[in-house]
Amino acid sequence: LSFLLPGAGEYYAGSKKMAKIFFGTEVLLWSAYVSFRVYGNWKRKDYELFAVSHAGVQTTGRDHKYYIAMENYNSLQEYNEAKLHQRNLADLYPEDEAHFWQWDSSGSREKFTALRVSSDQAFNRSLFVIGGIFINHVISGIDALRLARKGEQARKKTIQIGVAGLPEGGFVLSLWKVF
To answer: Three-class SS of residue 97?
Structure first.
């Protein structure tokens, strides 16, 4: 159960304290994941709006690669000249109004870079949280197995009574304790 929902196996095995710990950790991790994704999207909107205001960009249909190019070059023309110089024709953007950008200052470009990097960092952190969620599931599952085995052994260490039939007829009553 704990491999599916951390804490469920512990609860089933009778360890309500550990169940609360693992389930609480799961809730916190999912909350962190959602928070990082929401924050990353907010920052993405911030840098897109900033680019519209300070570089004259049309944001419709722009991919991440385009925004990286914007932070490294002052204008579309400067970017395309660099790509021509590198003989990298595949990365050229059409020099039209739809792809145009021209930063109003290097300070604006630096602020844009900080906003974009902040967005990327939030998305990267959300991936690390997914790793934490996976680890929480595995550790909780292992802990639930340990608790279940411990409970099974505790049940075996009790006094047991048995009745068995004898081949020559009759019955035997047995009393034993398992250590």
So the answer is: coil
Report CA-CA distances (Å) from 100 to 15, 63, 96, 142, 149: 62, 14, 6, 56, 66
E strand or H helix that includes residue 35? helix 16-55
pLDDT along the chain (179 residues), means of 10: 88 88 95 98 96 93 92 94 93 91 94 96 97 94 87 60 71 62
Measure the CA angle with vertex 23, ends 18 and 28; round to 5°.
Answer: 125
* Residue 6 main-chain phi, psi, to 5 deg: -50, 130
Q: What pTM does this model have?
A: 0.74
Residue 101 structure tokens: 């950008």
Find, among 22, 19, 44, 21, the residue nearest to 121 by Cα: 44
